[in-house]
Design a protein that fits this description.
heterodimer, A: 306 residues, 13 helices, B: alpha/beta, five-stranded mixed β-sheet, three-stranded antiparallel β-sheet, 14 strands
Amino acid sequence: MPKYSKIKKRTIKVPQYLFCFYVLFPVVSAFLILRVIPISSTFIYAFFKFSLISPVKTFVGLNNFVQIAKDPFFKLAFWNTTVFVVLTVPVTFVISLILAVLMDRGIKLVSLYELLYFIPVVVPMVPVAMIWKWIYDPTYGLLNYFISFFGQSPKGWLLKSEIAIYAIAIMSVWKIIGYYMVIFLVGLKGISRRYYEAATIDGASSWQLFRYITLPLLKPIIFFVLIMQMIQGFNVFTQVYVMTMETAGAPGALVRVIVFDVYETAFRFFKMGYACSKSLVLFFVVLTLTIIAFKIGKEKRIPRRR
Amino acid sequence: MNKKYRFLVVFLLAALLGLSLSNLSLAEKVTLNFWSDTTPGPGLKEQVEKFTNLHPNVEVNFSLYPLREYERKMALSLPAGAGPDVCIFNLVPTAHPYIKNGYMAEVSPEIMSFLQRTVESRYLDLLKIDNKLWCVPLNGPDDKILFWNKTMFAEAGLARAPDNLKELIDFACKLAKYDGKGNLLRSGISLRLSGAGAGVAEKWWSWLLNAGGIVVEETPSGKYHNGYDNQAGRETLKFYIDLLYKYRVDAHAVEHDVSAFAQEKTAMFKREAWACGYIKEHAPNLNYGIAPLPRYRRRYSIAMFAGLLVPKKTKHPKEAWDLIKFITEKENIKDFLRTTGRLLIGRKDIDYNIFLKESPKLRVVLEAYQKYEGEFFYPAIENWDEIYTNLAYRLVEAYKNEKLLDNPEGIAKVISDAAEETDDLLKEIGVYGEPEVHSQTLEEIWQ
């Protein structure tokens, strides 16, 4: 190659690299500072014992994890969180899928329904939780007022743990179904009409169309939705905190969830190392479930015929 | 010189001059950050405004936070070298970890002589941690008192507050009201049955104290162990369960605490003197009385002082202590107490007779305090919040368990599990000590 073109190639590459560096530097720095470093620190501090207000950090190995295994409050939180996930994930999935299928079929006023179901999604969780807290209020709540028409006595919807978890799950499902409905809708719009036309010609019923065309072609979206719901479910905190904590009438720990347990351990009892170990347990639980979901959802490869 | 450059030079010189002048004025003016939780807020704000009017070179940024938010902000900011120049804490418990870890400054010599002049020595001793003074008391000891609705009592043919536990149960049964279906409409006594903090354990502790027990007991060697895995602890839990499920004078679904009392949804409840201020604001016509807690084996109260402290990191310690001294000087502390409805016992320089003439209710509060045979303070251990909060969680669960009614084994299991956890938490921080073995019964000890 002639010398002149080599020099021209070098002078063009270096400014390009510099440009990439300057553009990416703020974003990467922010990502490092706000994500990578704190998360890495959590992994490291999980093996230490230290208090938020004391500078001394002592390496304790797996001691924190041994303590977690014996901690009744963490076990309770884990159980409550699992119950919450088991309640909310399938219900949200089914309702949002049904709604999406109905919307896709072109029912009347579909835009209005989309708006109505999506409004709870865009409203922040805190005011929504406050409003539902009042709906569930044992003395002044709308729900008790409504059931009084059926001869029912007032219930402490957020006062008894066995009811409170369902009450919070109902509110959580109501808030999020619009979001997953839209995701399913996008997936449904991506399925070619020709498949349905061809199947209809062959005499397929509505259920068969749904079972053999819609569901298989929606598989990637379905697994995305399930994984996202699981992650969100295990990270539940805001609505539980707002609706059940910090009031004299609240059930306190009885609707304790993992993230609240971590929060209280870190910022109330100042046991940062222990809180980090609990976060790590949550991380691995969610990671394991995600890997399992991916493995189940992985499509079988049909080997090519040669 | 070129016009453009001349202008640039003049501009730079002007900027430098302006900067140095502003730095000069900044050096003269001192800014203090004063953080507090919301309960003493209005009273403190008044004093801060008076202080800044008298000291124009000191600007005080006074910030109020809800209690739990306040605790978290302090926990996050002080270790990071940030935070306020003046703060308020309940002594001993909440301030203790910060003092132990070196975040708080000892009182200045000037403040020490002020305290020695104005505060009774027995209260000064109570405020010491590691034999040193770290705060100026703002209010306390905030003993627990029984509020009773005189109108409801009169309707039930009762002329006075209950004096002992048996009377308390009898009176509560007469005062409770039910609807046609047997649901409780008005509780005979409002218990603290739920909540997310150590308050549930503290309220239970009040009754436990009178039964002869204590949550965390100190050994002669200065160590600690649980003081409720005994007859007193079991009886106190049984007391709650009986009130809920045997006598049915309180229930989870009814409203509780001072708000319930102000709305006349309960005939009795137990709180501190600050509740007088709440009732004055929300139910000024409520006809109520104040009494000490009913006696069981003894009549004791839990007590706590709130104090003003200066973190070590402050750049203006002199001004910070001056502000604290100003707020707690005789006339100013009286104004603060008037505004907040709180009490401060143990000041040698305050004539309480004159002060109490203005507030008849506070006189009754003081009279109630004087009937106590003794006071217990929170233990000076750094994980007291975790101990009391975890105990609270177990108690909340127990209160919802109707199967504990007439179930001594069930009650004993709840108490022993909770006590084991308390001891484990004490062992975790290396302050556990074995309990003494008593050959006497509780009745013999407290006769």
